[in-house]
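chain below, 112 aa
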Amino acid sequence: MRGASALALMLALLALASCKPGAAPDLPPVGAAAVEAQRAACEARGGNFRALGASVSFCQRQTGDAGKACASARDCEGVCLARSRSCAPLAPLPGCNEVLASGGQVVTECLQ
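prediction:
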């Protein structure tokens, strides 16, 4: 029992020793700084940062299987367009689009 108490005390002292008084915690950016960080990450992955209205932004990228024939969402990187039965050229697609779900059902998907 005494060994366990000594170990617990040592761990507590090590935890306290690692504290840095006055050091600010590493917090994620917010506001405009967060938007710029998201933009930079999107562009680094080859995407295009798009604004959808005044307060919504998203990262849109070209898909590698654009135009390929599809029968359901499982066949595409992005979505399977219901009307043409082909994979969409961009992901995600803004607005409302009729797409084929993973079971092949026609559904309306909206990104607004």
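Helices lie at 2-17, 31-44. Residues 2-17 form the longest helix (16 residues).
thats it, cya
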